[in-house]
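Risk register update: the risk of archive-format incompatibility is retired. Evidence:
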Amino acid sequence: MKWQLEITSVRRPAGLRVAGEIDLETVPVLDLALEPLLAAGNDVVLDLAELTFIDVTGVRALARTASQLRSAGLQLHLVRVSANVRLLFGLSGWAHLLGLSGVVTDPTERASG
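Archived output:
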């Protein structure tokens, strides 16, 4: 099986750069990459500039991550989100309902949510 997802750790700010596709097959890889960031007790930044596709399984994984962080008083910050991915978040209702409404396109901005 060839993975269609590449995840790179980013130090400043602490987070991940996600490239490729997040779907049913690749969500477990994303979950594994997120585990140490969730355990660190800091906000998490995901750079989604190179994310080409995300299905509902991927959106749920991001929403679950956002929820876990929020319950600890922290936030998930999505940066450099493509117009197509922002549209999917908006159309699915996940953006507003799960605190992902602050998606931004500039990596120097922080998402509010």
